[in-house]
Every structure is written in C-alpha cells, then in structure tokens.
Amino acid sequence: MKKARWEWCLAHENWTMEDWKNVIWTDETSVQLGGIRGKRRVWRKPDEAYHKHCIKTRWKGFKEFMFWGCFSYDQKGPCYIWEDKTAAKKKFAITEIKRMNKEKEADDRLAWELEQQLHREAYFGRHGRRIGGVPTKWRHSKENRAYVREKGHGGIDWWRYQQVILKPLLIPFVVECMVDRPETIIQEDKALSHASAY
C-alpha cells in the first residue's frame, strides 16, 4: 500500500493547478450525532474517572449514519445520507438483479463457450492432445459474468452504490462539470462498492 501510494504521488508530482481542477473528490464517512466516533484515550488522575472530559456520553436517542459527498475545485457536488435497508428494497434488488442476469445470460454463455474453445485449442497446441476428463458445464455464476451481490460486513455494496449514488447523483454531477472541464476525472478510494467490476 505504501509503495502504491508513493508511486501515485510520483506520477502526479508535476500536475499543475489546472490539472487538479479537473478532479472530483468523493468519500463516505460515518457520523455520530452528539458524540465522537471511535475510541478515545485520555490521560487522567485517579479522581477524574467520571469527569465529563474523560468519559464518552451516550443517550437513548443516539444516532449514527453514513454520509456521502463530493466536490471539485470550484463546485460543491451532491451529498447523500444513507438510509437503512428495508425488506422492500432488498426484495427489489434481488428481483432486478435476476432480471438483469436473465437478459445477459445468452451473451455470457456465448463468451464462456468461446473461452472454453480457445482454452482447449491452446492446450492441444501445447501438448498435442485433447484435454481429458469431464468437460466443464455452463453455470451462470460470478466467475461467468453474472451479477452477484457480494456479502460483506457493511451495508453498501455495488448495487446500492450504483442505484443511489452513481446513476442519480455522481454521473449527472460529472456531466455538469465536463461542460467547463472536459478532462474531468473522479477520485474514489478502493472501498468494495467503488472498486467492484460491476
């Protein structure tokens, strides 16, 4: 990670202010209302154990949420507060992904068959004989280009990011920025929802 970051810095060290003006920066953060996120360490005297500056207070109405936002050099982009997932939204996502997979399954199978044929021919060319064993059977899976919601520890996967952020908020903002700056690019971190091939 350090090496990759160092290389990134070296690759961009000669960028001018005009180059940096083309970048849209995006990120998410967890927000706590009325508190400080994460652990706090304090130095205190024995009699300060319950002093208000040494303890972390919470109350019954405690609220934590995820906030997403973006901006460029001279424009503030849209922002979004992530809503909790509902059963209806989960069901809709499952239905939509099944529909999308059904639409593309024939094309994915054709691509898979072509890859299998090329693999068999390459094997024959190297070894002068056919591949033995039971032939591989087609299955529309993640490995064969099917859309799959990845299970993670967080609640924001590629599907939610695409439906809630990319299509309705980020892409229109990029189009708006490209009117004045045609070389506009987006800078995101490598969160699973950002780095997904989908």
Write the layout of secondary structure elements.
Elements: H1 2-12, H2 17-20, E1 23-33, E2 63-71, E3 76-81, H3 87-127, H4 158-180, E4 185-187, H5 192-195
Parallel strand pairs: 1-4
Antiparallel strand pairs: 1-2, 2-3
Quick rundown:
By secondary structure, the chain is of the alpha+beta class. It is 42% helix and 15% strand.
Structural features, described:
The protein has 198 residues and is α+β, with helices and mostly antiparallel strands. The chain contains 5 helices and 4 strands, in the order ααβββααβα. Among the domains are: 62 residues; 47 residues, no CATH class. A 4-stranded mixed sheet has the order 3-2-1-4, with helices on one face. β2 and β3 form a beta hairpin. The two termini are 24 Å apart.
Tally the beta strands: 4
- What structural class should be given to the helix and strand makeup? alpha+beta
Q: What's the helical proportion of residues?
A: 40-55%
Strand content bin: 5-15%
Please report the number of helical segments. 5
Spatial shape: extended
Distance separating the two termini? 24 Å
Radius of gyration from the alpha-carbon trace, in angstroms:
25 Å
SSE pattern = HHEEEHHEH
What labels would you give this structure?
4 strands; single chain; alpha+beta; 5 helices; four-stranded mixed beta sheet; 198 residues
